[in-house]
């Protein structure tokens, strides 16, 4: 495997990612109560970032070859990312099979959620109803829980493989006894033993940041002869949004998140 050029290194602190996520939620806050809560959370994080030592991670910026090597290893892991269309179809099949008294209402809600654009504010009551649909779809078995499991596995595995390839170093990461955690790369990859020193949320935050760096710019997408490979370009599902916000240290459900890119 070709070494990563040390000329292209980005430094990243997970707490900065948390603040960025909350700022995006603040921009779309539906009411004063939500805005006030987000403003306080952002202020608390900024105070923590200024007053407490924070781990800093050095991330490599991938070349075309290195992105291809990442995609190869991600495919070899068996992780697959079902698109929204496949999940929605499986939910409809489950609702048809269960045939509840409000079948038509639930199917219409799925259609409404599918038609929403990224960034749209989602009615909390609609989210509650959609979670009911998800529970029914899981209980019915069939394709939906298998597809949902595939997506959860992808979201867990992709950031690990991204860190293997493009996490080049760190400062401020500690072992359980408080000493500086060692960092080791072998054969052009960060070792699993090294990654074990990271908390799961930090590992995912760093991995998702790396994948964001692999996302093509708008200019590159415009000039590309093929479509972007960042999945279907739509908002994340409930499951995915929950996992992504947890990785950034928040727990808010929103339709404003982006699907991690793998290109």
Give the helices and strands, then pairings:
Blueprint: E1 9-12, H1 14-27, H2 32-51, E2 56-60, H3 64-76, H4 84-98, H5 103-115, H6 124-139, H7 143-166, E3 167-171, E4 185-186, E5 189-190, H8 192-195, H9 200-213, H10 218-223, H11 238-247
Antiparallel strand pairs: 1-2, 2-3, 4-5
Helix pairs in contact: 1-2, 3-7, 4-5, 4-6, 4-7, 7-9, 7-11
| Total number of strands | 5
Task: Report the total helices.
Answer: 11
The H-and-E topology, N to C, reads as: EHHEHHHHHEEEHHHH
Q: Please, how many domains?
A: 2
The 3D shape can be described as globular
Contiguous low-pLDDT stretches (5 residues minimum) are 219-236, 238-260
Main beta sheet: strand number and arrangement? 3 strands, antiparallel
Structural class based on helices, strands and sheet pairing: mainly alpha
Q: Tell me, rounded to a whole number, the average pLDDT.
A: 82
Report the radius of gyration as a whole number of Å. Answer: 20 Å
The helical percent reads 55-70%
As laid out across the biggest beta sheet, the strand order is: 1-2-3
Strand content: 5-15%
* CA-CA gap between termini: 18 Å
Biased composition (Polar residues): 238-263
Region (Disordered): 218-263
